[in-house]
Amino acid sequence: MNITETSNGAIAIVAIEGRLDALSAPELRNNRSVIDPEKTVVLNLEKLDFMNSTGLGAIVGALNQKLQPDFGIVLSCMNDDVRSVFEITNVQKLFHIFDDTAAAVEFATTRQGAHT
Amino acid sequence: MNNSNITLTLPAERLFARVARQTASSVADLVIGDDRHEPAGRDFSHAFELAVSEAFTNSVTHARESATPQVVKLTFFFEQRQLVVSVHDANDPFTIETPVPDIESYPENGFGLLIIRKVMDHVTYRREGNYNIISMSKTL
To answer: Fewer Cβ within 10 Å of end Cβ, chain A: N or C?
Structure first.
């Protein structure tokens, strides 16, 4: 798994590429922006090929780090396989999910602005 | 691969979860054939791959520390349009009827067996001597 990180204003965009499973989940859990309670993160899942429940747990764990559970972690661009894991488990209810990253960043920026 | 058995024995270590998963994906693609590029074929393959990934990860997570290295054995079998995989380990007994995690508590684990039950057509668990055997099947 590769993680690349960029910034858009106060928002961190963390792109995950490859597989998110038991072997790679700790890397996401320990990501600098993920563990910062005040940092709003857009997780770009466009290049995430495979995710199992351990990976899903790491994404929920990322949300649990945040002071703002409503928008601390926002998700974008997941493929059908990854989306199915969110839907099977009902975990999609915990997140705002967008089909493109720009819309996710705009949502996160607006929500963050409303809370500062 | 009608009536053929494929057996894979792997160390009960996280590192080998990908070998289990990739083998499951390859076996599923083999039985799907040309349909693997169609949406239904891809869904079948992903479901099978995901279930094996979950079962193997469960076995590794609950593997006991012992003087002899623990292993997980996977057996694949295809018959009458049914792809079956059995996952065999020497861990403590468990039940596959685990409760569904409460989403409102933002759970970070407990989804593995739920996913297996949802994506596979038939799931059984049995205890044979000191071994757990979870058997999962999906029909093409």
So the answer is: C
Residue ranges of B 87-126 with Cβ closer than 8 A to chain A: 101, 103, 106-109, 111-112, 114-115, 118-119
Count of domains for chain B: 1
pTM equals 0.93
How deeply is A5 buried, as exposed, middle or buried, from its count of CB atoms within 10 A (0-12, 13-18, 19+)?
middle
Instruction: Give the closest-approach CA distance of B118 to chain A in angstroms.
Output: 7
Q: Contact A53/B14, CB-based, under 8 Å?
A: no
> What is the predicted ipTM?
0.91
Residues of B in contact with A60 (CB under 8 A): 106-108
Find the domain containing B133 and state its range: 5-139
Secondary structure (3-state) at A80: helix
> For position B21, which CATH number holds?
3.30.565.10
Max Cα distance, chain A (Å): 37
Domains of chain A, with CATH numbers?
A: 2-111 (3.30.750.24)
pLDDT of B80-89, one tens digit each? Answer: 899 999 999 9
